[in-house]
């Protein structure tokens, strides 16, 4: 029975991974397709011509760069504000901390359409034109809770006596934070940044309410099914996939030693003895 269970577990795991990555594999495969017509949906033959001009579609390229810049800016704002919120929740002795923590987590449970409608009413009410600014504000707000909770979880295992010891040895508060706390928070900052970037980059619902005349990549792809699906769509998607995989690998390789140090430091003797 144990062997049968192991076989069933391996088979179900293989089936799950196959269903998960099959669409990704098809996207990569069709980036090498030579389509006949406007829609790159049927396999016609292998070619490398699509990869020679990955930015050959001007409208697609502009939407791609817009989404890239928007996601980077939104991730930066979300990590900065989320980090301050996480530090306040983890360190400050505030009344109603549980209520505040619940309010921070509440946007994660709301449907995205609710946030999009509320923000639209707000921006229309203050007569703020929809465009890049409203996109940045709404995406930053959407990612804020994810970043704050990710960093709050990282701070839960942090020993504040390390920073206090640095200040007792003569380091100013800002220097103690920069040289002790910030390196230990680096894995959490990286995780919050990557999560916020991914959420902003592929967001469609909020973008459709806030974009105005600005076209992001998800909005462009949603309209492409009515106009034309060029091979460059799959080429850029494959490039984003490769960059994401490279960043994940880099974060894993660089974060593991930092994580081990973060776990070991609080357990060391105050005089440096193991």
Main sheet properties:
none
> In CATH terms, what is the architecture?
Orthogonal Bundle
The SS-based structural class is mainly alpha
- Helix count equals 11
CATH superfamily: MetI-like
Helix content: over 70%
Percent of residues in beta strands:
under 5%
Mean of residue pLDDT values: 81
Distance between the termini: 46 Å
**SSE topology string:** HHHHHHHHHHH
Q: Any idea of the CATH topology?
A: MetI-like fold
The total tally of domains equals: 1
What best-fitting shape do the alpha-carbon axes yield? globular
Radius of gyration: 23 Å
Can you identify the CATH class? Answer: Mainly Alpha
Q: Write down how many β-strands occur, each being a DSSP E stretch of 2 or more residues.
A: 0
Oligomer: single chain
Spans of at least 5 consecutive residues with low confidence: 256-274
């Amino acid at each position: 029975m144990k062997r049968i269970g192991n076989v069933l577990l391996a088979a179900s795991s293989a089936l799950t991974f196959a269903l998960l990555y099959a669409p990704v594999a098809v996207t990569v495969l069709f980036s090498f397709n030579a389509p006949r017509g406007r829609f790159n949906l049927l396999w016609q033959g292998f070619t490398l011509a699509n990869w020679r001009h990955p930015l050959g579609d001007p409208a697609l390229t502009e939407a791609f760069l817009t989404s890239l810049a928007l996601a980077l800016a939104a991730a930066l704002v979300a990590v900065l504000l989320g980090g301050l919120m996480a530090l306040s929740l983890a360190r400050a002795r505030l009344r109603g901390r549980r209520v505040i923590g619940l309010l921070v987590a509440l946007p994660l449970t709301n449907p995205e359409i609710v946030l999009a409608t509320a923000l639209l009413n707000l921006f229309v009410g203050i007569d703020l034109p929809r465009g890049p600014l409203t996109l940045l504000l709404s995406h930053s707000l959407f990612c804020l809770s994810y970043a704050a909770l990710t960093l709050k979880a990282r701070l839960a295992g942090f020993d504040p006596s390390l920073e206090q010891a640095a200040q007792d040895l003569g380091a100013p508060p800002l220097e103690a934070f920069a040289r002790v706390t910030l390196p230990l928070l680096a894995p959490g900052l990286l995780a919050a940044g990557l999560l916020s970037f991914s959420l902003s980059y592929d967001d469609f619902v909020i973008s459709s309410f806030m974009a105005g005349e600005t076209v992001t990549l998800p909005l462009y792809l949603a309209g492409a099914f009515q106009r034309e699906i060029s091979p460059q769509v799959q080429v850029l998607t494959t490039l984003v996939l490769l960059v994401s995989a490279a960043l994940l690998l880099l974060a894993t390789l660089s974060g593991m030693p930092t994580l081990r140090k973060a776990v070991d430091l609080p357990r060391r003797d105050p005089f440096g003895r193991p």
